[in-house]
Structure formats: structure tokens, C-alpha cells
Amino acid sequence: MAGLTSSTIGRKYAMALSAMFLLLFLIMHLSVNLISVFSPSAFNSASEFMGYNPLIQFLMQPILGFAVIFHFVMGFVLELKNRSARPVKYAMNNGSANSTWMSRNMIISGLVVLAFLGLHMYDFWWHEINFKYVEANAPDNERFWHELHAKFADAWRVIFYIIAFVLLGLHLAHGFQSSFQSVGARHPKYTPVIKALGTWYSILIPAGFIIIALYHFLTQS
Ligand code: HEM
């Protein structure tokens, strides 16, 4: 691990691996949360399974927490190293002429997603920890859907969530294909496929989250 993070190439490789893990997590997270749009009882069952399964709680969740923190810390380290290695901007780096807004501003879109995660962890994860471990309540398998639904009654929260999902989309639009490049997956035949997959992924995943947020906001009674 130390070897992997001691050189720039190693750091980029490790960053890409954490990104790929998070890309998979987002598919899983979206799939579970989409259930809440179709069936409250199926969502309650899925949440109960995720929330009380020891393998998920005590193995997968700590791995996920580590991946999220690692990805953000390593993102900052790479950004700082890039800046100090290049105190004067490349004459070649002529704004939009030879790079996209997304690729030049990964740190900005990343910071918005980080701010979102702060609120999101407070909204859901912290609430779960309190309910289960601090207040030590008995399991209540009926509560998950109502708790989620209630969070989306607040228009400001929904607006902030949606802004964050759009920025997440921009982050993914560059990040998806960049993570494949960083692990050396470059090939004249497969790179265009990876880029196309990245474009679809970066549209469909945030769109799915936006639909969930809007659905719960618009169906409040
Ligand atoms: C409308 C969209 C979303 C909804 C309704 C939602 C819902 C939830 C819920 C209910 C939990 C609590 C799980 C638990 O601890 O029992 C959770 C946790 C979490 N969410 Fe989201 N989420 C959304 C979008 C996102 C996005 C876009 C990201 C990442 C950028 C994200 C990252 C996380 C993480 C890292 C956790 C903590 C891990 C976990 O507890 O499983 N979520 N979310």
C-alpha cells in the first residue's frame, strides 16, 4: 500500500482503483434506493437486510468508508502535487482548447460532492448509528421508507441534493474514463467503448438519484 502511494503513478493507480470501487457502489446504492419509488415494503425489506446484515455492516461499510476518505484525500494530494510541479500554467493548457471543463475542475465538482456527503451522512448514516447503537432501539422494519420520504419534504435539501447530483454527473463524466486510463486500460478498440459507457453512466446514475429525490418531494402529502 505504501509503495502504491509513494510515487505519482502509484497514487494515480490507487486513486483509480478507489474510483472504480465507488463506481460500483453507486450502481448498488442507486438500485436499492430506486426500490423506494416502486414499493415502500420492498424498500423496507432491502434496507433491513442492508442495515442489519453483519457482513455489510462490519465489513462492507468500513471498506466503503475507507474508499470514500481515501479517494478524497488522494484527490487533494494529486491536485497539490500537480500544482506544485507546475507553478506556471502550461502555455499548452489553453483552457477549453485542449481539455474539458470537467477534467480541469475535478477538484471543484469533487468538493461539491464532498459537501453533499457531509449533509447526506448526517441525514441518513448518522441517524442510523444513533438509532441502532446510541439509543439502542429494537429493530423496526417499517421505518426506513417513511424516514427517507420525510427527508425529501424540505425543498432546500432537495435543491441542494439535485445540484450535487448534477456536479456528481460532471465529476463522473471525466472520472469514469480517466480511472480506466490510469490503470492502463488503453486500446484503440476499447477506449471509445469505455468513453461511451462513461458518458451513459454519468448521465443515468445522477438522473436516477434526481428522480428519487423529486419523486419523494412531489409525493409529500
Ligand atoms: C436520492 C438520492 C439518495 C438517497 C435517497 C440515498 C439514501 C441513502 C440512505 C437511506 C443511506 C443510509 C444507509 C444506512 O446506513 O442504512 C445512505 C447512505 C450513504 N449514501 Fe446515499 N442516497 C442517495 C444518494 C447518494 C449519492 C449520490 C452518494 C454518493 C455520491 C451517496 C453515498 C452514500 C454513502 C457513502 C452512504 C453511507 C454508506 C451506507 O450507509 O451504506 N448517496 N444513502
Could you give a short description of this structure?
This is Succinate dehydrogenase cytochrome b subunit. InterPro entries: Cytochrome_b-558, SQR/QFR_C/D. By secondary structure, this protein is an all-alpha fold.
Q: Between the first and last Cα atoms, what is the distance in angstroms?
A: 51 Å
Mean pLDDT level: 91
Order of helices and strands: HHHHHHHHH
Number of strands: 0
Q: Quick one: biggest sheet?
A: none
Supply Rg: 19 Å
Overall structural class, as computed from helix and strand content, comes to mainly alpha
- Portion in helices: over 70%
Low-pLDDT residue spans: none
Strand content: under 5%
Ligand kinds:
protoporphyrin IX containing FE
Walk me through what this model shows.
This is Succinate dehydrogenase cytochrome b subunit. The chain crosses the membrane at residues 55-80, 101-122, 158-176, 197-218. Keywords: Membrane, Transmembrane, Transmembrane helix. By secondary structure, the chain is mainly α. The chain has one domain (2-85, 103-218). The chain is built from nine helices and no strands. Helix 6 (106-134) packs across helix 8. The model has no long low-confidence stretch (mean pLDDT 91). Protoporphyrin IX containing FE is lined by residues 29, 33, 50-51, 61, 64, 68, 113, 120, 124-125, 128, 148, 165, 168, 209, 212-213.
Topology of helices and strands:
Elements: H1 2-5, H2 8-38, H3 40-52, H4 54-85, H5 101-104, H6 106-134, H7 143-151, H8 155-182, H9 191-218
Helix pairs in contact: 2-3, 2-4, 2-8, 2-9, 3-7, 6-8, 8-9
Bound molecules: protoporphyrin IX containing FE.
